[in-house]
Amino acid sequence: MLQKGLNGFQIKLLALIFMTIDHIHFAFQGVYEVPLAFNIIGRIAAPIFIFMVTEGMRYTRNREKYMLRLWIGSLIMNIGNAIMNAYFPLKSGGIIINNIFSTLFIICLFIYGFEKVVSSLKAKQYYKVLGFSLLTLLPFISSALIFAITNTGFDHLYMIYLFKFIMTAFPSILFTEGGYVLILLGLGFYLFGRSKIKLGVFYLISSAVYFFLSVDYSSVSTLLASDIQWLMILALPFLLLYNREKGRSMKYFFYLYYPLHIYGLVTLSYFLGR
């Protein structure tokens, strides 16, 4: 009997392919003329991974362990990015700031923290309400600390180390990949993901709002010359094909592939561009 739709493993594998195509554009820009189509295809990847992580939060047996893996991934990526930027600079002049682990962690933290606050309120456990509220606010607190240190200046060496420590260890809502846009997208996926109709309507509205707020649509020629994140709309068919079956379990493959393929592509780009 033929399987209807795509299971979790299949949809993540497709997202991985789209992500790799996007990162080829990112890594080799300035070395070769990589077609813009690579970047457009890449807009499909992040929404799929975000959707799948909200499904993970919905069905995982151990949310704390799930979030811990994402946080460790975020920490490793931040350290790896710093090393790669120091020793393998991009020919385009840009720097590696890719860290979808951080974005996914914040989304899961908000889901986890909010639900814990609600359940603690119902149980009248107000000390837990305070604790989980502070935990949920952590990405905002880290952002505020980063701004405070930046405004104070880096007159002392310890301020530089403190700044680097916070940026590396504490995911910030203002300095994470995709920013608040992808985080709001993830929260919407969690709220509406059980119904394909609600999911589709939410995603169409989100893509349309992003388009009208961020894109210069005064002429056809400017549509692809400005922010193309609105083309995340191309991910919708894949989201709707998801059949809620898990499929093969290769979770560590995806955790490992993400940093390794970025650093591999950047290293190759560095030597080819010399």
Automatic annotation (TrEMBL):
The chain crosses the membrane at residues 9-28, 34-54, 66-88, 94-114, 126-149, 169-192, 199-217, 223-242, 254-272. It comes from Paenibacillus lutimineralis. This is Conjugal transfer protein TraX. The keyword Transmembrane helix applies. It comes from the Bacteria. InterPro entries: TraX. Keywords: Membrane, Transmembrane, Transmembrane helix. Pfam families: TraX.
